C-alpha cells in the first residue's frame, strides 16, 4: 500500500505544485519541521519506512524513493557540523544529556498529563530531573548534540531539548515502548512522535470534523438521557473521544486498503458506537428502549447486540462488524479474533491487512480478566494470529465501584498485561481529541507496519455511575465532585476552536442543533454510511437459513472414492522418515483402505475429513494435541524423524483441494474455544473443530459454552456449526480425566439449540462428522468422544458401513435375540455398552436386550420408540451409565425415555443404575473404580 500511494503521489505531483521541485522542497521542509508542511503531505511522508540509522531506509525499485533517500542523506550532510568538543567536561555533560533523553523515552509517560480530571497522583520521577543527571539550569543555553532524537537539527540548547522532550513524552500523550526489544520498532515510534512533538498541526477542516464527531457523541447521550431518563445505556459520557477515535481509525484503515473492520466491545459506549459509527438507525434504537420485540427468540438487552454495515472511506467501501457480546466483558475479544481470522482466510490474506480486528476494553476488565492474557498470547501463533489487533481501552479510572489502585490491580497501569507481547502502549488524555487522533493514526500505522498488537489507553472518566441508575458519589465522592464541575470534552474542544478562530460560537451551536434534529427525524447520523452496500463484502449465510431440525442426512460416499482417499492420505514424500509406531498405524490404514482389515476410529475420523475436502469443504481443527491426538489415534500431522519437519497427508489429496488446517494449540481452553466459535460463525462452509485434551478441560471455557455456543442463536440469531470433541469415559484415571460433564451440556439443551452425541463405533463418528457439514443446518455439535474405544477390538466397522450407512441416533440390539423372550431392556450410551454386552455374553442372558442411545439431544424419542416396539413382553427397563447418578445423562434425559415407555407400555417403570452420587466425577483409586464398574454392570444386566 505504501508503494502504490507513493507512486500515485509522484504521478500526480502536478496537482500539488506543478513540478517535481515542489515535491522535493516539501520533503526538505518536512525533514526540518514536519508541522511546516500541509497535513496530507505530512501523512504521506510519515509512511516512509524508518531504520535506526536514517530517517528513511533504503527503499528500492522506485526513482522517487531513491531521490528522497538521497535528499535525506544530503540534507543531513548539509546540516552544520557539530562544534568540536573543547573540554572533557562538556563531553561528560553530553553523555549525561543523552542519558536524560533516554530517561524521557523510558519514563516520560509517568508524568504525562493524561488524566482529564487531574486527580491521578503521579510520583516524582528522579530520572527526569536535571540534577539527577548532574546537569543544572546553568547548562540551559549550552548547545548539545541530540544524538538519536528526531528533532531536526543535530544540536540544540539544553533548554530547547528539555522543552521538546516534555512536549513529546509528558503532555497529553504518554507512551510506553522502550520495553520493545526490536530496535527498528522503537525507532519507528520515535520517528513518528518526536518530529511533531506528539502534537501535529491539523487543517481547519480536520478540526471541524473532530468537533462534529464529538457533537454526535455528546448529542446522542443527551438525547437518550432526556427521552429515557434513568434507563440503562452505559453511556460514553466522559469518554466521547472514542467516537472521533473510531471514525479516524476506520477511515484511515480503509485508506490503507482494509476491506473489513471487526469490533468487539463491552457495554460502555456501545450504543453510541452503533449509532454514530455503524449507522444504526436511531429509530431502531429508540424502539429497543421502548421494549419492542424484534426477534422470534429470547433476544437480548440492547447493549449486547451486534450490528454490521458498510461505510465509505478514501480507499473504498469498508464493511464494519460489531460482535455480539454478553456481560462477561472480555470474552468477546477472542471471538473477534476468530471471526477476523476466518475473514482473512476467506480472502486468502496471510498477512492480515485486509481485515482489522479492534478490541475495545474497559480498564478494570482489561486488568482483571484472565482471557485478556490468553488473547494476547495467541496473537503471534500460527493458528490464531490476525496480523495485529488494535486494543482500545476506555479507561474510566474506576471499575463499578473499585477505583483505588491498590484494590483494582497490582500494576501501575491497567494496560501492563500488554507488555507480555511487547505491544506499544499509548496513554492519551481523552479531553484532548487531537492527541487521541494522533495516537490512533500511530497505532494503526504501527499495526500495519509490524503486524503486531498495539494498545491505546484512552484515559477519561464516566460522567454517570456504572449505569445511569447508579449514584456514584456514594463510593467515589472526590472523583464525582470534580466530574460535576468538569466541562465536557466537546465543550472544551469547541471553546478551543472558537478561541483559535477556527469556528464561531454560532457555528458550534448550529452543529449541535443539526445533530439533534437528525435524531428526532430518525435519520442515520453516521457520516460515511453506505445505504446500498456492496454485498460481496458480506459472509453469505442464505443457504443455511430457515432449516428445521431433522435426524436424516445423506452422508454416503462412493466406496471407490473412499478407497482412493484412504490410499492418498497414507502417502508421504520419498525419504520421509516416519517413527516406527506411526509407520505401523499408516500401514494398517492402507490395509483398511483395501478392505483387508476392520476400520478403527482414527482411520474413520480422518477419512471423514478427506471426504469433506473432496466435496469442497475446508476443515479446521485445533486443540492442545490434535495433530497426534491426545491418545495417539489421529496422527494427522507426522514428524520427520531426522529433521523434525512436519507433513500433513490430508493437505495433499489434490492440487485444488480446500484448506485442511490442523494446529496444536497453546495451553488455553477459554480463549481458544472462543476463537473457534468466532471462526465458525463466520465460515459456515468450513468444518470447524475444537478438541479438548480431556473433556474435563472444557470446564475452563464454560463462559464460552454458556454465553455463546448454547445460547447465541436464540439471543442474537447467530448460527454456528462448531464441533467440540470432548474425550469422555471412566477408565480409572481419576476425577479430572474422566468426565466431560455431559450433564452440564444436557442441562443447557432446549429449543433444539445444540446437538449432544455419544458415538460408539467408527462408522458413527464418520457419518456424524459428515452430517455436521454436508447438510445445511448449522447447530453446534458436542461429541462425547472415546478414549479406550479408539483401539477397542469390538469398536470397528467395514468400508461398506462408511459407504452405505448413516449416523444412527439409536442403535438397536446387535445380537439376534428373539424379541418375544426379551424381558429386560438396558438403555445406555457410550463405552459402557461394551462392558454390558460382554457381561451379558458371559452370563448367556438371552432375555436382556441392550439399546444404545447415540444422540442424547435433540432426543430421538420416535426412533427409540420404533427400536423397542418389538419387545412386547418387557418386565423391566433400566438406564445404565458410568457416571455418578447425580451426573451424566440420567436427570436430563430420563423424562424423554419415560415418555417413550409411556407410549409403549404405561406399566413399565424406568430405573437408573450408575455410580453412587458423588461430589467429584470419579474416584482416584483404581481398585475402587473397578469395583464400582463391576457393580453397575452386574446390576444393569441382572437387576
From TrEMBL:
A GO term for molecular function: oxoglutarate dehydrogenase (succinyl-transferring) activity
Catalytic activity field: N(6)-[(R)-lipoyl]-L-lysyl-[protein] + 2-oxoglutarate + H(+) = N(6)-[(R)-S(8)-succinyldihydrolipoyl]-L-lysyl-[protein] + CO2
A Pfam family this chain is assigned to: 2-oxogl_dehyd_N
Alphabetical UniProt keywords: Glycolysis, Oxidoreductase, Thiamine pyrophosphate
Membership in a protein family: Belongs to the alpha-ketoglutarate dehydrogenase family.
NCBIfam families cross-referenced by the UniProt entry: 2oxo_dh_E1, PRK09404.1, PRK12270.1
The protein, known as: 2-oxoglutarate dehydrogenase E1 component
Organism: Nitrincola nitratireducens
High-level lineage: Bacteria, Pseudomonadati, Pseudomonadota, Gammaproteobacteria, Oceanospirillales
Gene name as annotated: sucA
Amino acid at each position: 500500500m505504501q508503494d502504490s500511494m507513493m507512486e500515485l503521489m509522484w504521478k500526480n505531483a502536478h496537482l500539488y505544485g506543478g513540478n517535481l521541485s515542489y515535491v522535493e522542497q516539501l520533503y526538505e521542509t518536512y525533514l526540518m519541521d514536519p508541522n511546516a508542511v500541509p497535513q496530507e503531505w505530512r501523512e504521506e511522508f510519515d509512511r516512509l519506512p524508518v531504520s535506526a540509522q536514517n530517517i528513511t531506509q533504503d527503499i528500492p525499485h522506485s526513482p522517487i524513493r531513491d531521490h528522497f533517500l538521497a535528499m535525506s542523506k544530503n540534507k543531513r550532510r548539509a546540516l552544520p557540523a557539530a562544534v568540536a568538543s573543547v573540554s572533557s567536561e562538556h563531553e561528560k555533560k553530553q553523555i549525561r544529556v543523552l542519558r536524560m533523553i533516554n530517561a524521557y523515552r523510558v519514563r516520560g509517560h509517568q508524568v504525562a498529563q493524561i488524566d482529564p480530571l487531574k486527580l491521578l497522583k503521579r510520583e516524582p520521577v528522579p530520572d527526569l530531573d536535571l540534577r539527577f543527571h548532574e546537569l543544572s539550569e546553568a547548562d540551559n543555553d549550552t548547545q548539545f548534540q541530540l544524538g538519536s532524537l528526531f528533532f531536526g537539527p543535530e544540536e540544540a540548547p539544553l533548554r530547547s531539548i528539555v522543552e521538546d522532550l516534555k512536549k513529546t513524552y509528558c503532555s497529553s500523550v504518554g507512551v510506553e515502548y522502550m520495553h520493545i526489544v526490536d530496535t527498528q520498532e522503537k525507532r519507528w515510534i520515535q520517528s513518528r512522535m518526536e518530529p511533531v512533538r506528539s502534537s501535529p498541526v491539523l487543517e481547519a477542516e480536520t478540526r471541524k470534523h473532530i468537533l462534529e464527531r464529538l457533537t454526535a457523541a455528546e448529542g446522542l447521550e443527551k438525547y437518550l438521557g432526556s427521552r429515557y431518563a434513568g434507563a440503562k445505556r452505559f453511556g460514553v459520557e466522559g469518554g466521547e473521544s472514542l467516537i472521533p477515535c473510531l471514525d479516524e481509525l476506520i477511515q484511515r484503515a480503509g485508506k490503507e486498503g482494509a476491506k473489513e473492520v471487526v469490533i468487539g466491545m463491552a457495554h460502555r459506549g456501545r450504543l453510541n458506537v452503533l449509532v454514530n459509527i455503524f449507522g444504526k438507525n436511531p429509530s431502531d434504537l429508540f424502539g429497543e428502549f421502548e421494549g419492542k420485540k424484534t426477534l422470534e427468540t429470547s433476544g437480548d438487552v440492547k447493549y449486547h447486540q451486534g450490528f454490521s454495515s458498510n461505510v465509505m472511506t478514501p480507499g473504498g467501501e469498508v464493511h464494519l462488524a460489531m460482535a455480539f457480546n454478553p456481560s462477561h466483558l472480555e470474552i468477546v475479544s477472542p471471538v473477534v479474533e476468530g471471526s477476523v481470522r476466518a475473514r482473512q482466510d476467506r480472502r486468502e490474506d496471510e498477512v492480515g491487512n485486509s481485515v482489522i480486528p479492534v478490541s475495545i476494553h474497559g480498564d478494570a476488565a482489561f486488568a482483571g480478566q484472565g482471557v485478556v492474557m490468553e488473547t494476547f498470547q495467541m496473537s503471534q501463533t500460527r493458528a490464531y494470529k490476525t496480523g495485529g489487533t488494535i486494543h482500545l481501552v476506555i479507561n474510566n479510572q474506576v471499575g463499578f465501584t473499585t477505583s483505588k489502585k491498590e484494590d483494582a490491580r497490582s500494576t501501575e497501569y491497567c494496560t501492563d498485561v500488554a507488555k507480555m507481547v511487547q505491544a506499544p502502549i499509548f496513554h492519551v488524555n481523552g479531553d484532548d481529541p487531537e492527541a487521541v487522533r494522533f495516537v490512533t493514526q500511530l497505532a494503526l500505522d504501527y499495526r500495519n507496519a509490524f503486524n503486531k498488537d498495539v494498545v491505546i489507553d484512552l484515559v477519561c472518566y464516566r460522567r454517570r455511575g456504572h449505569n445511569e441508575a447508579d449514584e456514584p458519589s456514594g463510593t467515589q465522592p472526590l472523583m464525582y465532585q470534580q466530574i460535576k464541575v468538569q466541562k465536557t470534552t466537546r465543550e472544551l474542544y469547541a471553546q478551543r476552536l472558537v478561541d483559535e478562530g477556527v469556528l464561531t460560537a454560532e457555528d458550534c451551536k448550529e452543529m449541535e442543533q443539526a445533530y439533534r434534529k437528525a435524531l428526532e427525524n430518525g435519520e442515520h447520523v453516521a457520516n460515511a454510511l453506505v445505504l446500498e452496500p456492496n454485498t460481496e463484502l458480506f459472509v453469505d449465510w442464505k443457504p443455511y437459513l430457515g432449516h428445521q431440525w431433522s435426524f436424516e442426512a445423506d452422508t454416503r460416499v462412493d466406496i471407490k472414492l473412499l478407497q482412493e482417499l484412504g490410499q492418498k492420505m497414507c502417502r508421504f514424500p520419498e525419504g520421509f522418515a516416519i517413527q516406527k509406531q506411526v509407520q505401523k498405524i499408516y500401514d494398517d490404514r492402507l490395509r483398511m483402505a483395501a478392505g483387508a482389515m476392520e476400520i478403527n476410529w482414527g482411520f474413520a475420523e480422518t477419512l471423514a475429513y478427506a471426504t469433506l475436502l473432496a466435496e469442497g469443504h475446508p476443515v479446521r481443527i485445533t486443540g492442545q494435541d490434535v495433530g497426534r491426538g491426545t491418545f495417539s489415534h489421529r496422527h494427522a500431522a507426522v514428524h520427520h524423524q531426522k529433521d523434525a519437519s512436519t507433513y500433513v497427508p490430508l493437505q495433499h489429496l489434490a492440487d485444488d483441494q480446500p484448506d485442511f488446517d490442523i494446529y496444536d494449540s497453546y495451553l488455553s481452553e477459554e480463549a481458544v474455544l472462543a476463537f473457534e466459535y468466532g471462526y465458525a460463525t463466520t465460515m459456515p462452509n468450513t468444518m470447524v473443530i475444537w478438541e479438548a485434551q480431556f473433556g474435563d478441560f472444557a470446564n475452563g471455557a464454560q463462559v464460552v459454552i454458556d454465553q455463546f455456543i448454547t445460547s447465541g442463536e436464540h439471543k442474537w440469531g447467530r448460527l454456528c456449526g462448531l464441533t467440540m470433541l470432548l474425550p469422555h469415559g471412566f477408565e480409572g484415571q481419576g476425577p479430572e480425566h474422566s468426565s466431560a460433564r455431559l450433564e452440564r451440556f444436557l442441562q443447557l439443551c432446549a429449543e433444539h439449540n445444540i446437538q449432544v452425541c455419544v458415538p460408539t463405533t467408527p462408522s458413527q463418528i464418520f457419518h456424524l462428522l459428515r452430517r455436521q457439514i454436508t447438510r445445511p443446518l448449522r447447530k453446534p455439535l458436542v461429541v462425547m468422544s472415546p478414549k479406550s474405544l479408539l483401539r477397542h477390538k469390538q469398536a470397528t466397522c467395514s468400508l461398506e458401513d462408511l459407504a452405505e450407512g448413516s449416523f444412527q441416533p439409536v442403535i438397536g440390539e446387535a445380537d439376534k435375540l428373539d424379541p418375544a423372550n426379551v424381558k429386560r431392556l438396558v438403555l445406555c450410551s457410550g463405552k459402557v455398552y461394551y462392558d454390558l454386552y460382554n457381561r451379558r455374553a458371559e452370563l448367556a442372558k438371552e432375555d436382556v436386550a441392550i439399546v444404545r442411545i447415540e444422540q442424547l439431544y435433540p432426543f430421538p424419542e420416535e426412533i427409540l420408540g420404533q427400536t423397542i416396539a418389538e419387545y412386547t413382553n418387557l418386565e423391566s427397563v433400566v438406564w445404565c451409565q458410568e457416571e455418578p447418578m447425580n451426573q451424566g445423562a440420567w436427570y436430563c434425559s430420563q423424562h424423554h425415555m419415560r415418555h417413550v415407555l409411556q407410549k409403549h407400555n404405561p406399566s413399565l417403570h424406568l430405573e437408573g443404575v450408575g455410580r453412587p452420587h458423588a461430589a467429584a466425577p470419579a474416584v482416584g483409586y483404581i481398585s475402587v473404580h473397578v469395583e464400582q464398574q463391576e457393580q453397575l454392570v452386574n446390576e444393569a444386566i441382572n437387576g
